[in-house]
Design brief:
Blueprint: H1 18-39, H2 43-54, E1 58-59, H3 60-67, H4 71-83, E2 87-90, E3 100-103, H5 105-115, H6 125-128, H7 132-158
Antiparallel strand pairs: 1-3, 2-3
């Protein structure tokens, strides 16, 4: 009886691309905790607020696309921000199916408050051992990876 070829053992933690990305993300978010605590936001809430501070009046689908979140994750997040009186939902008269999210006065004021808070990692080379230009390159490389992953998902959706 012929023996089967041995499968490569690629199920080692150190061989996974996802693990160092996951661990680094977790560690980076932990660096943000003191900043976020002062703003009384979770990290996902902070991301939504960043998107709205940059461009107030976004449709829920646009926020989801920007943050790479599905509506099942985004809707409860937006409801919590609305309960905190940081955002408001509006349905345009011409299309009641769409929901547009706007900052409230309190949400806009939080932006002013956040501007004066010390952000983690900005100009702090000793934290991550990288110069600002290296961090910019790392960010660029990560976005390139995200784009490749998005293309893979698009290709898979088009397969029969």
């Amino acid at each position: 009886m012929a023996s089967q070829p041995q499968a490569p053992n690629n199920l080692k933690l150190e061989d996974q691309l996802c693990f160092p990305l996951y661990a680094a993300t977790h560690a980076l978010i932990k660096l943000y905790y003191p900043f976020l605590r002062r703003l009384k936001l979770t990290y996902p809430q902070y991301l939504v607020m960043l998107a709205l501070w940059q461009n107030n009046g976004l449709m829920v689908t646009d926020i989801g696309r920007l943050l790479r979140l599905d509506t099942g994750t985004l809707t409860p997040l937006l409801k919590r921000l609305e309960a905190m009186k940081l955002v408001e939902r509006h349905r345009p008269q011409d299309d009641k199916r769409r929901v547009v999210i706007f900052l409230t006065k309190k949400g806009a004021a939080l932006h002013e408050e956040a501007k004066y808070e010390k952000l983690p990692l900005l100009g702090e080379e000793e934290v991550v051992g990288c110069a600002d230009k290296d961090l910019a390159q790392l960010r660029k490389d990560i976005y390139r990876l995200l784009d490749r992953i998005d293309r893979i998902f698009e290709e898979r959706k088009q397969r029969p």
